[in-house]
Amino acid sequence: MRNLVMVVSYDGSAYSGFQVQPKDTTVQGKLEEAVRVLTGEQVKIHGSGRTDAGVHAREQVIHFHTESQIPVQRWRLAMNARLPSDIVVKSVREAPLDFHSRRSAKRKTYRYTIQRTRYADVFTRHLAFFHPTPLDLEAMRQALVLFEGEHDFSSFCSTRRPDGSHVRTIYETAFDFRPEPDAGDGDAGVIHIYMTGNGFLHNMVRIIIGTLIEVGEGKRPSSDMPAILAAMDRKKAGPTAMAHGLMLWKVEY
Q1: Are residues 116 and 84 located together in one domain of the fold?
Q2: Residues 54, 107: contact at Cβ < 8 Å?
Q3: Which of 123, 132, 137, 153 has the most crowded Cβ, counting Cβ within 10 A?
Q4: Is 110 marked as a binding-site residue?
Q5: Domain C-terminal end among 45, 65, 95
């Protein structure tokens, strides 16, 4: 028995999330199908995280057990030849049998992209949330750093999927604004928001982003973030941001 670990990128636009669903097309389903066609095995693939419908991944880490003796160096080309063009295996390695892509992970980084321009970009419409009106970028920066540290994120997780403890640690955040002076107005540009933590609750990043956008729109002050965290009440936070702006950026072990 071998434990193969792959780093996979995908555009989640056409999929009902990563995790296998009975009647829907998913990334995990496509990966398992590719292994079955290649080896004849019905394997169970495990991912480092379950991205939702429409969410993308730059570096999703997966693992599965196989009896196949195909050399490691041949798996990437063989898998990519059997996968749709919006899923790509970037690397393959063999790991000890006790390695688990989710349980062994130490840090995960997500990136959310906001296109703050007057006109939408047709070429990035599946990868960025389009916001045509101005945002207070400094207020958003100030609010973002208040999420760093260990907190109970009950106010920032979906009430539809309880996950036991809602305590998570955000190790670091980053706010990257890239101006586009020819995009139609003075403060136009693309905003990349990064969050690195030891784990994330269902919809946690998207709810944080939805709340930050409200801060940028002047609907609430950045200083409200500690009180929202302390309330442990989903109704106190902002809306859940659109899925297509979110990307699983990196997983560290």
Answers
A1: no
A2: no
A3: 153
A4: yes
A5: 95
Of the listed 52, 136, 182, 233, which one is catalytic? 52
29-39 per-position pLDDT tens digit:
999 999 999 99
Helix pair angle (204-216, 137-145), 10° resolution: 140
- Domain co-membership, 35 together with 158: no
Same domain flag for 117 and 179:
yes
Together in a domain, 40 and 118: no
Q: Are residues 170 and 211 in the same domain?
A: yes
SS3 12: helix
CA distances from 154 to 1, 33, 234, 240 (A): 40, 36, 6, 14
Q: What is the DSSP letter of 153?
A: -
Task: Give the range of the structural domain holding residue 59, as residue numbers without chain letter.
Answer: 2-95
Whole-number Å distance between alpha carbons of 89 and 10: 9
Share of the chain above pLDDT 90, in %: 89
Q: Is 175 helix (H, G, I), strand (E, B) or coil?
A: strand
Token pair of 185, please?
A: 């107005």
Average pLDDT over residues 220-228: 97
Token readout for 236 is 């106190």
Nearest to residue 197, comparing CAs of 217, 220, 178, 174? 174
Q: How confident is the model at residue 185 (pLDDT cuts 50, 70, 90)?
A: low
Does residue 102 lie in a domain region?
A: no
**In this structure, is residue 148 part of a structural domain?**
yes
User: Residue 132 pLDDT more than 80?
Assistant: yes
Question: pTM, whole model, 2 decimals?
Answer: 0.93
